[in-house]
């Protein structure tokens, strides 16, 4: 016979009430409630630590034997200190009229234990072709933690990596409140580590991080070049991984392109699932803009959405920025903005395209591949140099729209047909070799286009 | 149980423990003090299930044992013993508890000591060794600014956290805010904790006038403080403290510096005529180097007082609740006060000149 935990606890309480004195019952049992049941363990919610202590030392056997009469599979009791609702209701009767304005204190949304910001949920997360792989990987993990371990999400700044991984943490927690989820970023992690070192608490530090069921670490590209930290992360990773605890990382680059990352970490990151988040396409941009506008209650027509989505191809943060300025302007003017006014806002908030000199671009690309810029201009027929030279030409054409003859002239006085050939070749190669596409994406973000 | 104890020690222990404020109808034993003779010590304990205090004192034990008796009765008995009585004998025969001196004898009924709650101990949390006086100083520097109602439990508290090598104490009732920073060694990764204001008062009573260090342990639900002879445990508030740093103004347009004593007497005079909301006005006159405080209550009259001041920046007028300023003056930390203002509607900062570790913020009135 199976009962719900609530029913089971209700029955148990009814029996206990008959066995002990009324004051005892009222003090120690009246405010308890069932939290849940997990295999052979029954979780009891108690209002305070004093209560927990007392039930544990005095009544544990009695509770257990009474519970087992109804549900023999239970062999263990756990007490959880928790408040049972009511708090919220009280809060509604907030203080009334006082001429003093209050300090504009904002309630922090960050949960103390998990470090997750509760505002990041999937309700406000927009899925489009640019992030759907990452999204479904996250959903799979929520369904079955450990299925992709680790999950490595990368993409450039402002595309919603943090939103995705925090929402995943929040969702996991919602499904199973007993999970120990923890969100941190590389900065906080290294701070913790240094603090632990200086205070001789390295063991506590290790124990704490090793006790998590789900560890979410943001912006791990900042570990680059920090060997000692990487070593710590490596051991932490192995321990969590062996225990099949879910690990989620985010970074602005594919692990293979994080400079100064040790190979053993790189290979471990690659062991699970690596997904990227790209820039949103037109449809996704439009969807995001619509959503943000309706969240802020700003009336915008489809025409305006279309205009914004076409003209701002930046990241989601930029889209939010524009929506914010529109919101402020709308409030200021007290009416709906015209397309003209919006065009003006967009003009101010969209950052102008970077103008780079061709030799600057060559220098950057050469630096990326670790060759001397001079080699690009020279007549060298060395295979790897030729390859890089072709990429330079491709980028100049594709991203900076420079004419074939100009490219040829600038890059060591070559014929424009050579440039056309190079361009076509790289274009073909990208289709076949995804890692080359990766490199180009990397270069794009380095060049800021 | 049978033991002999020095009166002085016993009185010290009793005043560390507390009588429960409200009558415990639910569990009468909570009105009791728990006494246990063990080895060569006497353990005394009280609790109201929000806080618990335990005191251990050395005694001469003839027979070990434990008993619980009404705290108020025992405390009255002990405070009325003649001063020359130095040694007190406690004994318990399983039914009556006896307090005996060479000159007097008292018999009291008892509770079943097994029914008395044990105090929770924090396991598996790091322990921090911190200086008692610094900790108390930090708490006392801010606690008056805490909200007194239970409407928002997280601000009806003193919030304690670390920032580098500083322990930071904060209280606010959302109309004013006090922050005190204390440099402490080995503070390390002391976790942030929201200490309920009611229990803070008990805490102060237990550790006031104590010296040296105590070890502090913090877990998810409780905080405990322990010295060789004292143990104090309190529940902590499960919640997040408001993100207050962002509201502290980083610059000011007017800075007023004045003497603590002159400001205090001006406020005392002016507030007599403040209205039901304790509203008073502040106005600067830069040319004359004066700050003018005034109050007006249509039913009874009005008052005005001038204070010499050094004024930097523009002249300004502001209204605020006199009590918020007066509170910070009554916890004096120096003889000069500086007030840094920006706009009539923005919070302003009050500091003690030469005391950068303390900051006080007041929200003006409309």
Can you characterise this structure?
The complex is a heterodimer of chains A (449) and B (366). Chain A is α/β, with parallel strands linked by helices and 449 residues long. Chain A contains 20 helices and eight strands. Mean pLDDT of chain A is 83; it is low at 86-99. With 366 residues, chain B is α+β, with helices and mostly antiparallel strands. Chain B folds into three domains: 2-115, DNA Polymerase III, subunit A, domain 2 (DNA Polymerase III, Chain A, domain 2); 127-245, DNA Polymerase III, subunit A, domain 2 (DNA Polymerase III, Chain A, domain 2); 248-362, DNA Polymerase III, subunit A, domain 2 (DNA Polymerase III, Chain A, domain 2, Roll). Chain B contains six helices and 26 strands. Chain B has a nine-stranded antiparallel sheet. In chain B, a hairpin with a 3-residue loop joins strand 15 and strand 16. Chain B is elongated and about 80 Å long. The model of chain B has no long low-confidence stretch (mean pLDDT 90).
Instruction: Kindly give the count of domains of chain A.
Output: 4
| Overall pLDDT confidence of chain A | 83
Assigned CATH architecture of the largest domain in chain B = Roll
pLDDT < 50 runs, ≥5 residues of chain A:
86-99
- SSE string of chain A, helices as H and strands as E: HHEEHEHHEHEHHEHEHEHHHHHHHHHH
Low-pLDDT stretches of chain B are none
Give me the side-by-side strand order of the main sheet of chain B: 14-11-12-13-26-25-24-18-22
Terminal CA distance of chain A: 65 Å
Number of strands of chain B: 26
Could you name the CATH homologous superfamily of the largest domain in chain A?
P-loop containing nucleotide triphosphate hydrolases
Question: Major beta sheet of chain B, specifics?
Answer: 9 strands, antiparallel
Could you give the distance between the termini of chain B? Answer: 66 Å
The CATH topology name of the largest domain in chain A reads Rossmann fold
CATH topology of the largest domain in chain B: DNA Polymerase III, Chain A, domain 2
Tally of helical segments of chain A: 20
Rounded radius of gyration of chain A (Å):
29 Å
Rough outline of chain B: elongated
